[in-house]
């Protein structure tokens, strides 16, 4: 199923006082680290995620994986599209960088997902009512913003 055909779930955005080229290495680092924390491989295996482990080239390129996700597109300075599926959901998380004035960029994170069947519906309810998804996405955006505005690019 193409990413664009997945139902829109939510979107969050932040303004960053940096250009997209400076933000990009922080974005890829923060996203991968967020989903590669202790326990994520075990969780990905528990829910039968299609991509339960880290694999592929680094820095992230199309086809790279980490627990729960496969990179569907990696266009430096523009878009990082992640896709995944497990027994309760098929989902995508798309990060887009856009100019927002001189030396400023807008980073948007869009989530798309489908939750088939009764178990999928329960999973959706837990995901959305717990607030964990929103907190996690907003935390990633804030971390990317802070690192991009304060420190040198990742790997420097």
Automatic annotation (TrEMBL):
Domain of life according to the entry: Bacteria
Identification of the protein by name: DUF2867 domain-containing protein
């Amino acid at each position: 199923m193409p990413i664009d055909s997945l139902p829109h779930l939510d979107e969050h955005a932040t303004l960053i006082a940096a250009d997209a080229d400076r933000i990009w290495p922080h974005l890829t680092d923060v996203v991968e680290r967020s989903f590669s924390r202790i326990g994520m491989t075990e969780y990905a295996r528990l829910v039968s995620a299609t991509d339960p482990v880290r694999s592929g080239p680094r820095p992230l390129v199309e086809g790279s994986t980490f627990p729960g996700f496969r990179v569907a597109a990696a266009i430096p300075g523009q878009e990082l599209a992640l896709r995944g599926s497990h027994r309760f959901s098929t989902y995508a998380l798309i990060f887009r960088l856009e100019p927002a004035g001189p030396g400023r960029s807008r980073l948007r994170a869009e989530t798309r997902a489908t939750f088939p069947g009764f178990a999928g519906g329960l999973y959706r309810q837990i995901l959305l009512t717990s607030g964990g998804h929103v907190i996690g996405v907003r935390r990633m955006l804030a971390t990317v913003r802070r690192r991009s505005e304060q420190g040198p690019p990742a790997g420097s």
